[in-house]
Amino acid sequence: MARSTEARPDVKAVVHNHSPSVVPFSVTTIPLRPALPYGGLRRSGCSNFEIRDAAKGTDLLVKTPYLGAGARQDPGKSPAALMRATARSPLARACRARSRRSVYLELSARMQLQAIAIAGPGGKIVYLDDSEIQASSRRRTTAAPGEWRAKALAGIKS
User: Nearest CA to 146 among 106, 104, 96, 93?
Assistant: First the structure.
């Protein structure tokens, strides 16, 4: 299996979290799709590592090099990835970008859950496409230090 630097040389760190709106997408077959432009997703969504495929009966923690290699095996092109019951997201070069993506990934997942509830079975949801996400990324400015922390904490309290 490829090492993380070989599979994604742009990835220097991964944020591990249990985002309450993201985790449901890691335990269902419904793909996490971009509902907001800054959520760290692409139109195709993100990969979802099933730890059972690598080893049965684990405690869902990647604690061995073998499981780590399995989790890194197919990171895809999306800057976010899931693992059942966990969000291994988002992948980014800079700490500030990872923090920003974590906040917006949670918000985007929450928006998708609400859209699914409104649309109902068989309803249509219009997700962002890659060109809209790319255009939004170009116009985005870097936030001041602490701004993303404040947004994350505000989201936890709501």
Answer: 96
Element (H, E) at 91: strand 86-92
User: Could you tell me what percent of the chain has a pLDDT over 70?
Assistant: 61
CB 104, CB 38: distance < 8 Å = yes
Residue 16 pairs in a beta bridge with 88
Pairing of the two strands 81-83 and 13-17: unpaired
- How much is the pLDDT for 3? 45
Residue ranges covered by each domain of the chain? 4-152
Which strand ranges, in their side-by-side order, compose the sheet holding 47-49?
A: 13-17, 86-92, 81-83, 47-49
State the pLDDT at residue 117.
96
| pLDDT score recorded for residue 112 | 93
Say how far residue 38 (Cα) sits from the centre of its chain.
Answer: 11
According to the model, what pLDDT value does residue 4 have? Answer: 46
CA–centroid distance for 50 within its chain: 15
Domain 4-152 classified CATH 3.30.1120.10?
no
